[in-house]
Amino acid sequence: MSRLVAIEWDAKELRVLAGRKRARGVAIDRAWTISLLPADGATTVSDSEVATKLSELVQKEGLARSETLVAVGRSSIELRFLSTPPAPPEELADLVRFQALRQFTTLGDDWPLDYIELGKGTDGGTNVLAAAISPEILKQTQSVCQAAQLSLKRVALRPVAAANLLAKRHADERCRMLIDLLPSDADLSVLIGPQVIFPRTVRLPASLDPAIQSKSLVGEIRRTMIAAQNQLGGRRVDEVIIFGDGLHHAAVKGTLEKELSLEVQLLDPFSLVEVTSELKSMPEFPGTFAPLLGMLEGECSQTAETIDFLSPRKRPIPPNKRRVYVLAAAAILSLVASFAMFLYWELGNLDTKISSLSNELRRTKDDAIKLKKPREDVAQLEKFEVGDITWLDALDALSRKMPSSKEARVEELVATSIQPVGERPGGGQLIVQGLASETGVINRMEVQARSHGYNVSGSGAKYDAESPDLKWRFKEDFKIFPEQMEAIAAERAAEEKAKAEKQEKSQPAASTPVSAPAKPAAAAKGGVQ
């Protein structure tokens, strides 16, 4: 696993930490404190000198191309407590910069600006702690890391980085002051739980006398508490934490407890992280490494917010919908291709069906042509059947209506079938020529035929003097239709039924044989005397 490097420098020294990311946080391997005091007695150190010192350490310890976190002090940035109006989360970054441009004194459009959210205000807006850094200072930091062959990943605000160490230890909502004593400065940060609310950096006296430093520090602490109390609506600090050790800071702890009448505890920052066996000895002033330890811990655990000037918060970039459009286009093309394949397959099936139906139609037409003559014959037969007359029944029925042989005699009879035409039904026609004894017989014959449904038309009676017995000659046209034939058939069936019933009644109904009486002699001979 690649190493993480955290660095910070001021006018007096360069502090460097090297560690590795573990499952539970960071593991510290090495810690270095390198003096930057020039030999000629100068009071400032150039960036090139810092880069040289750092490069020598990197080459010696094999730290080249390590991911690097840099802490910058409060004196290098401009910081304000801001309140924004209610707005969607994605618009908060723009609102913070807009508010900062109005309230910061030296903020330019090209200044990196980052912030941490402190919670919601009474009006529904958001309270933030915003910080901006000069582009020149950021470029100097980048140049130092580049010269030392380090990969710069983050530039954090020192007080916020130091507070990251308390993210797991103090998750309550108590109001505390965190003090980080550095060679020339002291970071005084007021926290609510692990969250930095009011950070302030003060200069320490040049004197090394602890009493003088403690007295100056007490005054600055009181001023900081008053300013924070005003910002927090009257809330007071109820505990003070000093990053340090008992060897160097016991006197400061005692003075603060006495002057402030508050609980004060010393906290070694290295006790809050995992330390590997590679760290042979602790730094002389472990409290000065609190910001570096906090940066590494926050980077590995991702438990607390931080201010990062290298990658400040900005309005979220709108999601790139190109992938969505590509997928949608691909889906549409897939659907179109599938539909085209289905259409091609369906058209192929329809072509096959059309071909099959065409062949079937052709065969049907051929069969129809072949069946035309039989159908015509069947039609003729059906037509004949409709107009067919059972002539024997018709003649039998007509003979029953004719006069006796003494009154009339038929000499010629012509029977003709009448085929149906349109709505006219079929039937039969009988043309009868004969002789009658008198004209009244002819009239009676016509009347009887009409009464039984025949259509009768005659040519009248003519006297025939040459006829030996019957003198009146006639010619009659009898037309009979299917409904008359049905009536004739029903009448004949009724007669046959009546005849059969009469025969049944005339037969004896004896169930046992009875001896017949002796026949008289006359009956035996078969005649009547």
Describe this structure as you would to a colleague:
With 529 residues, this protein is α/β, with parallel strands linked by helices. The chain has 2 domains: 4-301, Nucleotidyltransferase, domain 5; 391-500, General secretion pathway protein M, EpsM (Gyrase A, domain 2, 2-Layer Sandwich). It is built from 12 helices and 19 strands. It has helices spanning 47-61, 92-103, 135-147, 158-163, 210-231, 246-260, 290-301, 322-387, 391-401, 439-451, 482-506, 521-524, and strands at 4-9, 13-22, 25-35, 67-72, 77-84, 113-120, 126-133, 151-157, 175-181, 185-192, 195-203, 239-243, 263-267, 274-275, 408-418, 427-436, 455-458, 462-463, 472-480. The strands form 4 sheets. The protein has a 6-stranded mixed beta sheet, with helices on both faces. Helix 1 (47-61) runs parallel beside helix 3. Residues 518-529 have low confidence and may be disordered.
